[in-house]
Amino acid sequence: MLVILRALALCSKVAVRKALTASLRLLGDIAAHRNPPESALGESYYRQAVAVTEELGMHPLLAHCHLGLGNLYAKIGQPGKACVELSTVVGLYRAMDMTFWLPQAEAALTQAGSSLALPTHREP
Hints:
The protein is an all-alpha fold. It has helices spanning 2-32, 39-56, 59-75, 79-95, 102-116.
């Protein structure tokens, strides 16, 4: 009986941590969508969610957290960081065959990448 009670307590802790990650992602989304975005707060929430989702192996939620973080970086004018996060997202979505989300991530990556392009110098 004691073993079953310990297992139940452990399952409860894992369930709470899973709910925590979803809440952290949602808080990141809210901070990112404010006008103006609360970038430091959003980044903090997303990073916390990423840490726990990696630990728990929650790969779809992990990908969504990276997508939110990449979109936040693009929104606040940090295309280099955006490209890193969005490249991660595209790889995760492909690996998990998440075809619904993949086009959105690819489009965001393309847009962020175009912000990195430097103007070419033209000779007179």
